[in-house]
Design a protein that fits this description.
heterodimer, A: about 110 residues, mainly beta, six-stranded mixed β-sheet, about 55% strand, B: about 110 residues, seven-stranded mixed β-sheet, 11 strands, globular
Chain lengths: ~110, ~110
């Protein structure tokens, strides 16, 4: 039973437009949420995070939104660039633990 | 600025052979982790080490052992490799719990 779901395996977006990646979780005990980006043959790279006390966190072109009532997390990339083409994983955890649960990933392709 | 270094990058084993995957981090992080990534699945935690001298099981520990050799190094051992252990293995480290994890570039392991 998947506790974290990324229902879109892939997404294509034109350069300069907004990319929106989604993630759903099932357990309301999760209170810290992260996004990672992964290029082929490399390890995941931390991108941005948000704690459950916030509903938005912004870092440059990347913004993460958290809707606790819907148990939904999204990552917005504006404007999208070809270098953003990668696989994006969401991850969730409960504060005070070491165990992260990762989604299955969404492959983003930004078209020039 | 190496971060997390994993060796080897690729390995092919025969069923029943043993193998140790090495991981070292130079960020003075307290916590270290081993994950496996299989097609269509997110990263799954095998074992983690909260701090030097401690190790704990993750989601999928069967068939593996770990050693936290010192603060820098955390190894993963397959005593008797099985085809089901064919995967990409990632090592990660973090300053403490509920902090972003930093990943190595992975070891691609094939067991025939």
């Amino acid at each position: 039973d998947q506790q974290v779901k990324q229902n879109s395996p892939s997404l294509s977006v034109q350069e300069g437009r907004i990319s929106i990646l989604n993630c759903d979780y099932t357990n309301s005990m999760f209170d810290y949420f992260l996004w990672y980006k992964k290029y082929p043959a490399e390890g995941p790279t931390f991108l941005i995070s948000i704690s459950s006390i916030k509903d938005k966190n912004e870092d440059g072109r990347f913004t993460v939104f958290l809707n606790k009532s819907a148990k939904h997390l999204s990552l917005h990339i504006v404007p999208s660039q070809p270098g953003d083409s990668a696989v994006y994983f969401c991850a969730v955890t409960t504060s005070g633990t070491y165990k992260y649960i990762f989604g299955t990933g969404t492959r983003l392709k930004v078209l020039a | 600025n190496a971060g997390v270094t994993q060796t080897p990058k690729f390995q092919v084993l025969k069923t029943g052979q043993s193998m140790t995957l090495q991981c070292a981090q130079d960020m003075n992080h307290n916590s270290m982790y081993w994950y496996r990534q299989d097609p269509g699945m997110g990263l799954r935690l095998i074992y983690y080490s909260a701090s030097e001298g401690t190790t704990d099981k993750g989601e999928v520990p069967n068939g593996y052992n770990v050693s936290r050799l010192n603060k820098r190094e955390f190894s993963l051992r397959l005593e008797s490799a099985a085809p089901s252990q064919t995967s990409v293995y990632f090592c990660a480290s973090s300053e403490s719990r509920s902090q972003p994890q930093h990943f190595g570039d992975g070891t691609r392991l094939s067991i025939l």
